[in-house]
Amino acid sequence: MISNHYVHTFQNRDGASGDTIVEALIANSSTFGKKTVFSQEKYKLKKQKKYAPKVLLRRPSTRSICETYFKKSPARTGFMRVDALSLLLSMANVGPYSDVLVVDMVGGLVVGAVAERLGGTGYVCSTYLGSAPSSIDIIRMYNLSSDMTSRIVQAPLGDLCSLQNSFNASSVLKDSIQAEGPEPNTVPVENTEPSIPQPVDTTVLDEKAQSSEVQPTNIDISEPTMDEQINQDDNSSLDCKGNDVSSIASKSLRAGKAPSPEKMKYWNEHGFSSLIVAAPGHEVESFVADLLPLLSYSAPFAIYHQYLQPLAACMHSLQVSKTAIGLQISEPWLREYQVLPSRTHPHMQMNAFGGYILSGIRIHNGDACNGIQ
Amino acid sequence: MLKMQLPTLGCYFCVFAKLTKGSAMCANLSFNTRITIPAASAAAEMMVPLDPSAKPTSQRRIAEGDNVVVYERHDAMRAVAVRAGGVLQNRFGVFRHDDWLGRPFGCKVYSTGGGGGGGRGGGKAGAGFVHLLAPTPELWTLVLSHRTQILYIADISLVVSYLELVPGCVVFESGTGSGSLTTSLARAVAPHGRVCTFDFHEQRATSAREDFERNGLSSLITVAVRDIQSEGFPEEQRGAADAVFLDLPQPWLAIPSAGITLKQDGVLCSFSPCIEQVQRACEAMRSCFTDIRTFEILLRTYEVREGALKGAADDEECNAGPLPHREENYCLLRKLQMVYIILLLSWLGLAAPLKGTPAT
């Protein structure tokens, strides 16, 4: 049995390589010879991991970023497991030239994943309730090209909904939106008062012909945004991210800017191709009701939540309102296996809680007579 | 009409591995490839738009030649090519394609059976209706004709994620089967990537090719007839693939060739229904792949119903008898609670018939 002191001497003074140390440990171990073949292999791997570690450098991808956060700090990403995220992307038909509407309150994991799948075509419109968007810092992990980051835009839900209503109603609303435009700038960056965003919220909400159910949700959300970086538009993001390396700062400058009025108009007329909602910790029923009208007809949507009850309530209200079909609540189940000769079995611990997804397709619920419109 | 079969319990194993450096594989492979590249499809390219104008939006109207997915119920859908004078008949009645022209996708259409064609059938009691949806790879998986057992959304989504596919990638696949996964791979790599798929069965390869053409995917997907297990991937494709997917009865025979076809840092996935196949595949991978992981994935679905639970006070009240001056209080106690009852519907798994070993 070699003592730790001996090993350190070996390492530092004699400059021995990790493999040499491992061999020496094996040679001097009193119990090694009595171990089974499997046990010996396990022992060797353990020592190698400590004294001769190898790392493989790989480009980050949606899969690896999601897995890392899930292992290290799952609370930041709403306990979204890789298979749940993959399902969201498939169910929402994220593909080339898609205009994907996203509510991302999981740090930007979903926005980044969608941007990666779009590959520089289409748009990701990350929308938020209230006046301050939640942080989407995780997109920096994706190493997105400038093409891809330029496709990420942020717009408050109030603006998107107001446009919708002004499309149907008068142009008075359009003037109000322009009047509101400069308001977010005047709200201080380090805003910790929940009461200050509220007046802005209520003016936005008053314009909306939508139900007032959104109001209580806004009040809830103003608290989480206190802690997160407030990233209001290009100008203030310069202040927020001043301490970053310049290339990273320039990426975050390009991502998350407001969409052009032409784009907003296009989305208003054509609708978004699909919707992904990842807002764990929020009641989703009310703002899904506001988000669905922004989608194209026959557009799929996928709503992720940590818990089942909010999705059940949401599904029920969608069924009653008949605004969507193909509704399904799914729970993905993932089990990893160790596959080795004579030692194949599932990993000793399995994660049983990767969240739930409500998926469906928005339908046209206009009048359904036969014949051409 | 294909009724969707939802299999019960079952599991599939996907094995993911990444290519390491210095894979010294000497495989004596014979190459006898027939690669046919079909002409560009005339069908509307909606399923995977290759152009911003091709995607279905609220402004788009159903036109002749469009593919629509007719949604009858959550487990009853079919793909229909719209044509003038065409008719669809199902349990809900007779539907004329002409009534669909000019309607937006996602609309509800009524049958014209019985009382007067072309009139407002909506008012008639019992008039059947369906919804017309724009096709997507997910819907295609649910409506395509099964020539073989197919992959469903849970496996497809995990495979696409773990193969790290982004637009522009080149993916090699064997076997094609019914083209369920192939369609989703095409979406993942569009608009400039490529899917090269191989199947040893000539008829199935032809059917798949026709499906892809009908769905406007011919420019993305190349189908070839080749026995990958015995011949491997074509030599001229050495180092061409960002990712390789194998769904074969004996994948270990194809793994050396997959190693040659993959670029450095490429990802291989092998998909098998049986653990013995998984074990042999992993063994074959160990020499030139690293970071080998094996997963089993299933999807559970939940049904939501609104119901009523009775309060405990109800029973007490019956025994106490009527007391008129306290009736108001009793009314409050007897108020029923409305709750959502969440039922576990089923394990939506994937059961595969045991893939037989090919005859020697």
From TrEMBL, chain A:
One of its GO terms (cellular component) is tRNA (m1A) methyltransferase complex. GO terms for biological process: tRNA methylation. It holds the Pfam family Gcd10p. Keywords: Nucleus, tRNA processing. It is found in: Nucleus. Residues 211-220, 228-243 have a biased composition (Polar residues). Residues 178-243 are annotated as: Disordered. InterPro entries: TRM6 (IPR017423). Its main location: nucleus. Belongs to the TRM6/GCD10 family. This is tRNA (adenine(58)-N(1))-methyltransferase non-catalytic subunit TRM6.
TrEMBL record, chain B:
Transmembrane segments: none annotated. InterPro entries: TRM61_C, tRNA_MeTrfase_Gcd14. One of its GO terms (biological process) is tRNA methylation. Pfam families: GCD14. PROSITE patterns: SAM_TRM61. It is found in: Nucleus. GO terms for molecular function: tRNA (adenine(58)-N1)-methyltransferase activity. Residues 128-310 form the tRNA (adenine(58)-N(1))-methyltransferase catalytic subunit TRM61 C-terminal domain. It comes from the Eukaryota. Keywords: Methyltransferase, Nucleus, S-adenosyl-L-methionine, Transferase, tRNA processing. GO terms for cellular component: nucleus; tRNA (m1A) methyltransferase complex. PANTHER family: TRNA (ADENINE(58)-N(1))-METHYLTRANSFERASE (PTHR12133), TRNA (ADENINE(58)-N(1))-METHYLTRANSFERASE CATALYTIC SUBUNIT TRMT61A (PTHR12133:SF2). This is tRNA (adenine(58)-N(1))-methyltransferase catalytic subunit TRM61 C-terminal domain-containing protein. The lineage of its organism: Eukaryota, Viridiplantae, Streptophyta, Embryophyta, Tracheophyta.
